Amino acid sequence: MCGITGWASFHLDARTQAPVIEAMTDTLTPRGPDTGGVWLGERAAIGHRRLAVIDPAGGVQPMTDRPQRPDLVLTYSGEVYNHHELRSRLRGLGHEFRTRSDTEVVLRAYAEWGEDVARHLEGMFAFAVWDERAQRLVLVRDRLGVKPLFWSAVDGGLAFGSEPKALFAHPEIRPRVDADGLREAYSLLFNTGPTVWSGVREVEPGGLLVLDRDGIRERRYWQLEAGAHTDDRETTVERIRQLVGAAARSQLEADVPLCSLLSGGIDSTVLTALLADELRQREGPGARLRSYAVDYSDQAEQFTGDVLRTGHDTPYAAEAGAFIGTDHSTVVLDPRALLDPEHRTAVVVARDSPIGVGDMDTSLYLLFGEIRRHSTVALSGEAADEVFGGYPWFHSPQALAARTFPWLLVTGDEAAMPLNPELDLRIGEFRDDTYRSALAAVPHPDDESPAEHRQREMQHLSLTRWLRQLLHRKDRLSMAQGLEVRVPYCDHRLVEYAFTTPWALKSFDGREKSLLRAAGAGLAPDSVLYRPKNHYPATHHPDYNRGLQAMARDALATEQVRALADETRIKPCLDSPPDRLEWGHRLRLERVVDLALWLDHHQPELAL
Questions:
Q1: Among this protein's residues, is 2 annotated catalytic?
Q2: Domain Glutamine amidotransferase type-2: where (predicted)?
């Protein structure tokens, strides 16, 4: 896993701009702590920071097709899990290889298939190819958007980077926020394309962007389709078992220590069991997979249920680890450590955004830091809820009947920091318009019943929007610690198959994630298989709430924060007793604190 950046311009000789590309590349050092490099040509500058995972000696980047006067230059982040098969195929087509890295496979694949290269790749990736022959820059992002890729126009071309901070090191791009950006950030709709930053956009998941002398063009090479599903229940369960197993096996390859994130829920437990079994088959019956969970020092005594959590994870994670036979560890955090300004600032800097989830972000950042002491790669159960229908809104008559994004019924304005009404952002209208556009993008078969029609909408919204912010969160906080996190449930073949599966099969036993539960039978203890959905843990310690309220008061003392936040709606959150602070009110305070840290770090121009 790595950080990529660079630019192409037809108005400027990039060979004179070495300090600029070096500065852009340096901003991504946490993503690639092992080594870095740049390449300069007349029309393009390419930078790379590397976290060495496969072929540490051979996968150096930027990578060129030949040492002298190259035709192709690649900067690549991610993992292509079918690189062995592609290597054999490309050799059969006459390509020769100097390394055993998947990076070179991507380079040779582009040489063979050009802009169609992504259709041949299975994995998570974001990369840029400068094609010297065609004088063309090509940016490509994986199908689900696991790996980030941002871009912005510059004179005569565009600049790109794994994170916006790389773009801001370019002299033509400054951190600027306008009303559109605030709407994007605080509406909680998770659009793909526009960002909080004015002029900074994302390459869409499953999309590519091409810059040449004729300008910029974007297109999609992949999107969800509503194909026919003809398999019966038994065949469907078996196919799910095969697809999840294949995804897990393909993602176990690494030349560095690897582990699993084991929360004690069905998603991570089934995945960990498959990984552990495959590891034993490869390395012998004594091989043990490392697994990690997170907890807080007060959780067993202080836990209280809320809208997202029904129980304490740690006992289930320990039981699952013992059942599977992993080398299991629980990283126990002091809730008060989550208030450390250094940690909070590091999280906001990593995300380049004022929108986060407070202590849950900070704890994930600290968890990843502890894991990185022993492992370079971790596998996570992210996306199973979106793929298999695990969220409450799939099963709630209220959510199914609502004419808005379903997560807003849980989060809504209670969780969003209330913005100053004088800004007149009209977020309600923005949400309504965006919701209509989002539904218009959902594919449907002709013979779909009304109930199936609605469930397909819910799954499409979850996969193309809600999942987006979860993947952003995991990528930013893991890469800030130099840890690569892989997400097998985002395998596009699994996602495609599950999306075409009727809701009656997805919920055949009357519970959430019926298909995954059936496919995972025997891989997890029953206590885990039949456990209700539980979200990532949050601390419940009153001392944390008390400290958060103090930090929010300090944040509101700054002029820029007061200009953006609605103090009258935040004040009740400040005055609540710390031991009775509601979840939604606490999240408001988290957002106020993060806003202050974000403004202080980026010093953005506010064009409101």
A1: yes
A2: 2-214
| pLDDT tens per residue, range 422-442 | 999 999 999 999 999 999 999
- What is the DSSP pairing of strand 215-220 with strand 207-212? antiparallel
Q: Give the whole-angstrom CA distance, residue 195 versus residue 167.
A: 13
H or E element in which residue 568 lies: helix 567-575
Look at residue 363 and tell me if it is in a domain: yes
Burial of 570 (0-12, 13-18, 19+ CB in 10 A): buried
283 and 305 assigned to the same domain: yes
Do 341 and 313 lie in a common domain?
Answer: yes
Range of the domain at 37: 2-220
Q: Say if 400 falls within a structural domain.
A: no
Beta bridge partners of 329: 292
Q: Which of 2, 259, 490, 573 is catalytic?
A: 2
- Residue ending a domain, among 164, 186, 220, is 220
Number of H-type helices and E-type strands within the chain = 25, 19
* Residue 84 placed within a domain: yes
| pLDDT tens string 372-400 | 999 999 999 999 999 999 999 999 999 99
Does residue 456 lie in a domain region? no
| CA-based nearest residue to 356, from 144, 595, 79 | 595
